[in-house]
Amino acid sequence: PDTWFENANRRHYTLQRVSARNGEAVAEFYAAQTDTAPLALLRLNIKDATWFAVISGDYPDLDSAKAAADAYLQRTGKEAWIRRFAAIQDEHLETVASTGSGAPSDSSSDAHSGMLK
Questions:
Q1: Quick one: which of 80, 78, 76 has its CA closest to 68?
Q2: pLDDT (tens digit per residue) in 75-105
Q3: Is residue 60 assigned to a domain?
Q4: Taking the CB of residue 15, how many other CB atoms lie within 10 A of it?
Q5: What range defines the domain where residue 66 resides?
Q6: I need a labelling partner for 48 at 20 to 30 A (CA). Which of 1, 19, 22, 107 fits?
């Protein structure tokens, strides 16, 4: 069965908490998350290289994604990387793990680098 991430509207936004080529490190980061936000651990193909990423939440517009990213920054001191689902779905190779429904929660988002893609 498809996960919340795979069924997400391609025009919506999500927050990427971390991305790296080291799958073990990203899996450890995923396992350490304690908030209630829906999460997905993904294997991606970016420029012919395999990357792993943890994403969180499904936000219908850029303003709500920015608000979630700001809340995550306040809570964790880390910047969220706001991305459209379309870009991640196009890079997607495999959903390694997933929790939750993808709906926004009070514990908002996350990420690695605060870039908008």
A1: 80
A2: 999 998 999 999 999 988 888 888 876 544 3
A3: yes
A4: 28
A5: 13-99
A6: 1
